[in-house]
Write a structure and sequence with these properties.
Helices cover 68% and strands 14% of the residues. By secondary structure, the protein is an alpha+beta fold. It comes from Desulfomicrobium orale DSM 12838.
């Protein structure tokens, strides 16, 4: 498992992950973009609060994506069952 050292949101972090370096860079870029957006919208609040808002925003995105994935899997299952049904 490759090890990484990254600088994100003012912190130096070292960790090991099965992700490719390009994916790690994309994740860091996403965090920076989302943080900057929240910072621009929120005005003068602490970095800690911004990080909590960022975590909540990313968690909400994840949950919506999970719901969408479940819907797509259900639709796919329905289509597959139609294919498997004998013709009448």
């Amino acid at each position: 498992m490759p090890g990484y050292t990254i600088h994100v949101l003012g912190l130096d972090l070292s960790f090991a992950a099965d992700a490719e370096s390009a994916r790690i860079r994309k994740a860091v870029d996403l965090l920076h973009r989302r943080y900057d957006t929240l910072e621009g919208q929120a005005g003068h609040i602490s970095k800690e609060r911004l990080l909590v808002y960022l975590a909540l925003s990313l968690a909400d995105d994840y949950l919506r994506d999970q719901e969408r994935l479940q819907q797509l899997e259900s639709t796919l299952q329905q289509l597959l069952s139609r294919i498997d049904e004998p013709e009448k």
